[in-house]
Amino acid sequence: MWYFLKRNKQVAAMLGVLGIAAVVVIILSTRTAHRLAADNASDETEDFSDDPYIFSTHKLPSDDRFMPSIGNGHIATNIFSDTIYMNGLYNGRKGESHRARIPSWANIRLNSTLTHMPYRPVYSLDTREAAFKVRVDRDRSIVTQRIYAHRFYTRAIVNQIQVVAKPHDPNFIHHEIWIAIKQISGPSSEDIEFRTPVPEIYDGRTIWSSCGSTKDPEDPSYQPLPVDVCAYWTSVPDYLVVPQHGSKVFTFVMTVDKNKTIARQEFIEVLQQDGEELYKKHVDHWKSLYHQAGVHIEGNLHLSKIVNGIWYYYLSSLPSQHTYHPPEKYYGLSPTGLARGGSLLDDYEGHNFWDTEFWMFPSILLLYPRYAHDLLQYRLDMAYVAAELAKITGNKGYRFPWESAYTGTEVTQPCCPEVAEFEQHITGCISYAARQYLATTRDEEWLKQGGCSIVTHIADFWASRAVINFNTGLYDIESVMGPDEDHSNVTNSAFTNVVAGYSLYLAQYVACLCKSYYMAKDPDHWADIAWSLALPYDETLDYHPQFSGYERGEQIKQADVVLLGFPLQYPMNMSTRVNDLSYYESVTRSSGPAMTWSMHTIGHLRLQDDKKANDMFNKSYQGYVREPFKVWSELQRPNVGAVNFFTGMGGFLQTLIFGYAGVSIHLDRLEINTPQLPPNTTNFKIRGIKYLGANLTLSISETSSTLVVESLDDEWPLTMNDGKYNITLVPGMSVTLSGSGPFKIHSTSWKECKLPEDTIGHNYLRPNKL
Ligand SMILES: *[C@@H]1O[C@H](CO)[C@@H](O)[C@H](O)[C@H]1NC(C)=O
Ligand SMILES: *[C@@H]1O[C@H](CO)[C@@H](O)[C@H](O)[C@H]1NC(C)=O
Ligand SMILES: *[C@@H]1O[C@H](CO)[C@@H](O)[C@H](O)[C@H]1NC(C)=O
Ligand SMILES: *[C@@H]1O[C@H](CO)[C@@H](O)[C@H](O)[C@H]1NC(C)=O
Ligand SMILES: *[C@@H]1O[C@H](CO)[C@@H](O)[C@H](O)[C@H]1NC(C)=O
Ligand SMILES: *[C@@H]1O[C@H](CO)[C@@H](O)[C@H](O)[C@H]1NC(C)=O
Ligand SMILES: *[C@@H]1O[C@H](CO)[C@@H](O)[C@H](O)[C@H]1NC(C)=O
Ligand SMILES: *[C@@H]1O[C@H](CO)[C@@H](O)[C@H](O)[C@H]1NC(C)=O
Ligand SMILES: *[C@@H]1O[C@H](CO)[C@@H](O)[C@H](O)[C@H]1NC(C)=O
Domain Glycoside hydrolase family 65 central catalytic: where (predicted)? Predict the structure, then answer.
C-alpha cells in the first residue's frame, strides 16, 4: 500500500526496473525542500532518556513529520504543528476526502525555543503521562511547558506553562520575570469555512470562539450537508509575567466539537479547574488505561521504548471511554492515526483500509477488546453503504470499500482506481477480524447488534464472486488483487481466496450461533463454496503460487502468500510453509513495508529457526523507527513514505505477541506455543490478555515461562492442556509452562455449534467430500 506506487502505475512499473534509485528520486520530487535534510541519517536526534516511557532530546527532528503526536481519540495534533484533526471530520469529495484542518489555536511556543538562545531546551515525550514537555533552564527561571489532549475532557487540548523563579542574589534589585510566548495557529483552513472569531470576557479572561462548516461533503448521496465544527480558545498574550520571587502555572485551553454547546461547556469546565488537578485527572485516566494491560520488555531499552511508543500512539487515536461529555461515534483507526491525514493525497488522508483489521486489530483485541469492538462498530455503522457498493458492482451482500472515511462510501484516491476495483480482500479481512473477536469474546450482544448480519452478508458477497470452473470442478474468484499491489486483476489470489473461504465458513458457524434470533437462508451452501474454492498449489515445488498463472521469479511488493501461514493460520504441511517463506523472501522487494519482515519473523519462529527469525525481526523495525520519538515511517531509511505508520507498528506488535510469546487465537481455544524472549531481552511480559472474560498474564524469562490467571469469568471456565494433562484454571493460579507446548486453553464449547472446516481447494466433484 505504498502511496506513491498507488498514485502512478507507470511509476510502479518503472520501480521494478530501476529499483531503489527510482524510489529515492520519486520521493524527493514529491516532498518539499525542508524535508530533504531529514532523509539524512547523520541529522538524527538522539533520545538520551533511560526511562523506557520517556523519549527526550535537545534537538527536535528537522523533518517535522517525525514529530510526535498527542491525542485522545476525539482530537489529535502533531506537536508544534499548526493543525488539529478531529475524529470523523473530513472535507473533500470522494477520493479527495481527507481529514479537515482545524487551525491549532493550541499551538503555543516559548520564544526561547524558537530563536537561538543560550538555553538548551529539553523536549520530552512522556508516554506514561501522555504529555509532551518542554523544559528551559533560563538565567532567572525554569520554564516548563506541557501539552496534552485531555483523556477525560476529550474536547480539550491543554497547554500549561509553569514559570519558577530561581533563588536570587539579595544584593541586586530584580524585576518581574517576563517570558515571551507565541501562538502559531497558521493560515486559515482551506477545508473549513470558519467565521471571524468572536472575543468575550469570561471570569476576567479573554476567550475566543469560532464556528464553521466543512466545504465539500464526501458524497452527496450519503452526506447531504457539510459538517459544522466549533472551537473555543483562551487568548494568548505576548508575555507571561511572574513576580520576582514567584512561581506560577498558566493554563491555555482549546476545545473543539461539532456541537457548539459541548465545545463551550467543556471549555468553561476545564477553565475552572485548578491547573494541577486538571493535569492529574488526565494522567490518572491514562494510568487506568495502562493498568488494564501492557506489553513489557526488560533488558533492551530500545525495544521497550518502541513498544511503549506504539501503545501510546495507538491509545492516543482510540476513543476515550470515560469522558466528561459522551464520546461521539468513532470513525476508525487509519494507517497514520488521528493526528495525520490532512493534506490532500498524503498520509492516507485519514481513511480506513485493511490495515486496521489485519494489522492493528489483533493485538488491540487481545489487550483492549473494548477498542476492538469500537473498530468493528465503525464497519457495522457503514454496512448499509457496503450493501450499496455490492449492488453497484453487481454483487450481493456487503462489499466494503478499499478506502473508507466519513460516509463509508469508496474514497480511494483518484490516482488508483485499480486498488478500489480489485483489492476486495478487505471485505474478507473484516470478516477475519470478526472471527477473532468472536473467538476471544463470544460476545453474544455483538452478534445480536449486527454481528450475525455483517458476517453473513460478507459471505453473500463472496458467494456472489465465486464462479464455478467446469474444467477444474472448483470455484474461481476472478479480477482481484492481493496485498501484493504489483499484480493487479488476477484470478485466484491465494490470499484473497483464503480470506474469502474463511468468510464463507465463518458465516455457516455464525448462522448456527445466531439461529434463535437471526435467519440465515442456506448456511451449508456457503461452506460448500468454501470447500471447493480454488487454492493455487504447485505440487512439484510444494509451495503456493500467489495466484493462477503466477510466474515463478516475478518480484512482489510485500508479504502476500506468506500471510496464509500467519496471521491466517491456514492449515498446510510444514514443508509447504518452509517453501513459501523461503521462496517469497527471495522475491520480495527489499524496499517493502515493515510488515513483510514481521510476518517472516513469525514464520521462522514457528519453524524454530531462531537465527533467521531474529534477523528478520531486526529488519522489521530498525530501518522504520525514527528517533527520537519512535515515530514509524512506512518505508525503510533513507525513504519515508507515510508517517506515523500504525500498520508497521501493528506488524511489529504481532511479532512480539503472536511470534515470540507464541500466542495464537483459534475459534475453540487460545494457544501458547514455544514462548521465548525477543532478542537481547531478559524479561518479556504480556499483562492483561483477555480471553473469554478471563484476565491472563504471560511472563517469559530466560529460564521459564509462566501464565498467571488474574481473574476468570464464571460463564466460561477454562482448562489448559499442556500436551499431556488438563489443568483447571482458577483465579490467582500461576502455571509454569514447562516445555514448548503447545499449551491449549479452552472452555466449554459455544452452543454446540460445529466448528468451521476451514480448508479450501477440494474438488466438489470428488465423491469423498467430508
Ligand atoms: C547530510 O548531512 C551532511 C552533514 O551535515 C551534509 O554535508 C549533507 O549535505 C547532508 N545531505 C543531505 C542530502 O542533506
Ligand atoms: C516571539 O517569537 C515570534 C516568532 O518568532 C515573534 O513574532 C515575536 O515577536 C516574539 N515575541 C517577543 C515578545 O519577542
Ligand atoms: C448539543 O449538545 C447539547 C448538550 O449536550 C444538546 O442538548 C444538543 O441537543 C446538542 N445539539 C445538537 C445539534 O446535537
Ligand atoms: C488484569 O490483570 C492485571 C495484572 O494483575 C491488572 O493490572 C489489570 O488491571 C487486569 N485487567 C483487568 C481489565 O481486570
Ligand atoms: C481484468 O481482466 C479481465 C480478464 O482478463 C479483463 O476482461 C478486464 O478488462 C480486466 N480489467 C482491467 C481493468 O484491466
Ligand atoms: C502433506 O504431506 C502429506 C504427506 O507427505 C501428503 O500426503 C499430503 O498430500 C500433503 N498435503 C498437501 C496439502 O500437500
Ligand atoms: C539490524 O538492522 C540494521 C538496519 O537495518 C542493520 O544496520 C544492522 O546491521 C542489523 N543488525 C543485525 C544484528 O542484524
Ligand atoms: C544483540 O546484542 C548484541 C550485542 O549487543 C548485538 O551484537 C546483536 O546485534 C543484537 N541482536 C539483535 C537482533 O539486536
Ligand atoms: C482434556 O480435555 C479435553 C476437552 O475437554 C478432552 O477432550 C480430553 O480428553 C482431556 N484430556 C485428558 C488427558 O483428560
Answer: 346-553
